[in-house]
Neutral protease 2
Amino acid sequence: MLLSILVAGLATFTRLASSAPHEPEVSVQLSRVDNTRIKAVLTNHAGLSISVLTPKSLFDPSPVQKVNVLKDDAFTTIAPNASLETTFDLAETFDLSANGQYTIYSDDFMLYGAANTTEIVGSVLYKSNELTIHVNGAKPALIAHAIVKRSTIDGTCRAYDWQLKAAFARCRDLAAGAARIPSITKFAEYFKTTEPRIQRIVAARFRAIQRECGAVNRGRARFNCKDSSGLCRKGYLAYAVTPGGQVFLCPSFHGLPMNGRSCHSQDKGHVVLHELTHLGEVYEPRCRDYAYSYEGIKRLGADKAYLNADTYGLYALAVLKGC
């Protein structure tokens, strides 16, 4: 069995139009550590140091989709001709329970800034080598089982019960209004196309989220308020785990307003909708994080916009508020 796996495709940031005069050259080399554990080495071939944004990239140690607020320690500075190295297990994010041969590669980009700064000035593309491995399916199956067991926590949101029910109702209303696609002009503003096929996909995803948010305790997703992975301490509002259909709500989520005042301000319903777009259990193909905020999503092309989580959240807010 030969499968191609896009390693970095599980978690990425938006690609920004570069304002830097010269895009630095980097390379990524993959190698095998053991059964499903892979080592990746990113080397800076530029003549200057750069600081790369590692969360939601190939070098983020967390095997989950998530929404986060950037902190200073999100950047890692790489000197000229120096390298950044990480090791990860494919079985944490892919079903490799079947014995067989797999081909692994990474074809993606990373945001970067000048050395020792947190100001993003551009994006740098990379494509790794292709690595072919034979996997013993029994060991990955044990890893995947452990992750699902760790992530499934019942009754952790009881203290926020009324808030979450209101957030689900808000999410349901946002999705219901957006699914009707009341304005083609507004649709094109956010999704960069009026193609009927994309309209059908967008509407179907919103209808699936509407059903999910209207089925409290009966839906396919499970919401948790206990941060079993420790990611909330890094500044996240929420994060999703798929496969598994898990959404983890961090303490900062509970501080959000129920209804944001401005057109694109975050609120609880918007975040719930955003996270549900990440779950393949709710709708396939699931969304990624190519861009955040209205300014960020404006830079996306049509091929990325309909697969970007925040595009759905912001479009739904704009439709409901008549922006």
Notes: The chain has eight helices and 14 strands. The first strand starts at residue 2 and ends at 6.
